[in-house]
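[job 0417] fold request received: dITP/XTP pyrophosphatase
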Amino acid sequence: MDLVLASNNAKKLAELQALFAPLGVNLLTQGSLGIPEAEEPFETFVENALTKARHASRLSGLPALADDSGLAVEALAGAPGVLSARYATLFGQPKTDADNNRVLLEQMAGLSESHERGARFVCALVAVRSATDPEPLIAMGRWQGQILPALAGEAGFGYDPLMWIPALGRSVAQLSAAEKNAQSHRALAAADLVGQMREAWHLG
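[job 0417] inference complete; emitting C-alpha cells
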C-alpha cells in the first residue's frame, strides 16, 4: 500500500519508512508527486499535521501520513514549538538547522542549571484514508531531555545535537539510527499509530 508522506525531508522519510515497515506500506514523499508543501497556520502540532495530511491526500488521491514535530523548551514557554523548523527566521536568520541551533542557544544564554534547561521533543502523527476522512488516526509521542550548552554528536538532524537524554548519557545526535528509532518521540508516536492502522485500516 502506498502512503503519501506530507514531507520532503529525506531523513524524516528514512526514519518513518523504518518505523512503518511492519505494516508493509511504501512511503512516497509529496515532492516526488509534484505536491507543494501545505500551509501550517496553526499553533498545535496536531492541527498542523492534520492539515498537511489532508492536503497531501487531496492532491494525490492516496492515503496520507503527516508528521508535525518539534522541540518544546520549558524555560521558553514551549518555544520553538510548531516553529521549530524555522525558529531562526523569527530572529532574521536563515532557515537552517545550524542557525536554529545557534539561535536557541542564544535565547537560553544565562540558563545554566539543569532544571532550567528541561525540554522535550514532541511528535504528532496523523494518517488519513482520504482528504475527507472523518476518522483521522492521531498519535502523539514525547521524549524528555535537556538542552546542552553546546553541540554534541554528528548524527540525526534538527536539534538532535543539543538534546541530551539523561537516561542514556548521550545527546540524540550521538545515537545510532537504530537507537533513535527505538525510543524517540517519533518512534513512540509511530508505534501507537501502527497499532491504530492495524485495527482501523486492517493493515499488517
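[job 0417] notes: The chain has one domain: 2-200. The radius of gyration is 17 Å.
[job 0417] exit 0
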